[in-house]
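Narrative summary of target 7.
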Amino acid sequence: MLDPKLIRDSPDKIRNMLKARNVDFSLDELIKLDKERRELIIKTDELRKTRNQISVEISKKKKANEDSSSLIEQMRSVSENLQRLEETQVRAEESYQKLSLTLPNMIHESVPTGKDETANKEIKKWGNIPVFDFKIRDHIDLTQSLDLVDLERAAKVSGARFYYLKNQLVKLNQSLIQFALDFLSEKNYTPIQTPYMINKNSMEGAIIAHDFEDVIYKVEGEDLYLIGTSEHAVASMHADEIIEGKSLPLRYAGVSPCFRKEAGAHGRDQKGIFRVHQFEKVEQFVFSRPEESWNEHEKMLAIVEEFYQKIGLPYRVVLLSSGDMGKVSAKTYDLEAWMAGQNNYREIISCSNCLEFQARRLKIRFRDKTNEQPQYLHTLNSTLVATTRTMVAILENFQTKDGHIAIPKVLQKYVGTSTI
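Modeled conformation, tokenized:
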């Protein structure tokens, strides 16, 4: 959520942001609703003041044993008008809030302007793309030949894009989680396992819910949603709180399964475990002072890079364009790992600074002294590892001539073997 003062004072900035994001939004309607609700606030306050004054006069009349019937009638009329205005004010406020919750975040000046991924900017590359002296296979063929995944039985039990992990791939999945938690603990992140379901208020605080209706799973008959990432649950855990400034930044390593409908994929992405409805993820999440958030953003990206360098996966870092990044983010980096079986870089992590956008929605503030005015903090999030996609990269890049998979050295102690 944006600062209402920014919307009122600088509507052209908002229009430029919407144009850059290629988003159709009724800004004039929002400005109109804001004006209406503020006028109603003034009118209701004036009527309350009038009602209070009449109440005082009635009290004086009664103490003096004077006739107060005309004042009582006036009080009744004012109270009825006030009730109608208050109801109108509530409706205006609800309309304003509903529309304002769909307004995207502002964009950082370094973000390239463009309608889609074609305007994304490559920042850097790391690692050597592997060269094989044999015919390589993609992860779908590899997992079938090594009996690592059962898609057919998963489809029978749960439907398309679910899977059974089997044998050593189960251990590799768990090894990525454990290595990620150990790695972030060394970086002074607090490990946290989140609830797997959150309510609507929490979901709407973390995301623009309207845009995710086709992505998130709703629990029918209950005010609960399955989380698409631990980011949503971690962001909401400090809702309606004022945090002591000296405790910032708060750095969390959120671990959880993630549940997503993942509509719209095509081709080989519909098969295998690259794009699925359920997977595990370890997430970086930071609550930061506003003046420190951009440094924190770069630190989070550096942590991600170090993690994948330790695993040994070639990658590139891409700065997303205004039309390709999420509406909650002010700036997003993607890290794309090289997938040998697909002969292409594919996105495996996303690293975003959301500024005060989520904090305003969730009412999360901080202050350094008890008597000072609290201010909104900044929130940042970054995947460290989404296990299925990272396993796809490992399977395809570390495949051997005899049809097996070499386990990256940093994971061998967790898996208990050097090859699959």
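The chain is about 40% helix and 20% strand.
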